Amino acid sequence: MRGFASDNNSGVHPEIFYALREANKGHTIAYGDDQYTLQAYKKFKEIFGDETEIYFVFLGTAANVLGIGAFTQPYHSVICAETAHIQEDECGAPEKFNGVKLLPVETEDGKLTVESIRKHIKGIGFEHHSQPRVISITQATELGTVYSQYEIKALADFAHENNMILHMDGARIANAAVTVGKGLREFTRDTGVDVLSFGGTKNGMMYGEAILFFNAEAMEEFKYIRKQGMQLASKMRFISAQFLRYLSNNLWYETAQHANNMARLLADEASKIEGIEITQKVEANGVFAKVPPEIIPELQKEFLFYVWDHDKSVVRWMTSFDTTEQDIHEFVELMRKLMDKV
Questions:
Q1: Residue 277 structural domain
Q2: What are the Cα distances from residue 33, in Å, to 15, 38, 154, 240?
Q3: pLDDT per position as a tens digit, 265-282
């Protein structure tokens, strides 16, 4: 059953599958000392710089939790948007495994600003308060919006001025890069991001994420944190081979660009239907729309998607690297027919 529930619902890109098949030939050294991992490290360094430290993990949640954990103690706090994945969709993992306190910030578009987080910079050095240590942003955000490089730099500068670090959840970083129109390094490392959770699963990979450190503070002992965090893959070549192909010949860009284009098409076509309201800027591969509640169950019988806000009847539609124009036109046509009956 096709639909727009999540880019996690899509399959694996054929070229990624081919890379996995090639990596499956014969034996190689385990735990990351294989040729695929070494080549993938080289590819990441070509993009982000030789000083970048790369650690592969299985899951996006692990990338976020361990990446943040490299800089925090249990008395620290992490500032994030109220819609952030670490706040809403990680089952308290940052709190459980790092012991930190999350400080969610209400936003209209999923993006933090210096002004919106300033209220949390208090109690510094006061032993009765958790100590703000991390600002965590999501690129693209959970509401489908995208930070500009200038917005990121402002947050990074503010973080560093206050002895904090900037973490970026980049589960959909490829989609954001297409929108920003910059290279992956330009709006991450070059703007002051300290640690990046670099995702691939939502954009055509089978599984696997990367934690990239641009701040030398956490690099030396992170290998122990990853091992204790149960994310050191013995057959790491099957994560590495995916990233090696994903980052070669602009595959990551092509897949993300297609998903973004499909999201814009979906938003454009849906907005032509009277009674359907697009509620957020469509800047990546997510579309948020206010839809009459009476047609939602009928739509969901044919196409998978989630209700984002039941009170406001706002739904979320996600497109993927393999979403087709036919998917969109069939969905919009069904929506139009149902709206005619309202």
A1: 251-340
A2: 23, 7, 38, 11
A3: 999 999 999 999 999 999
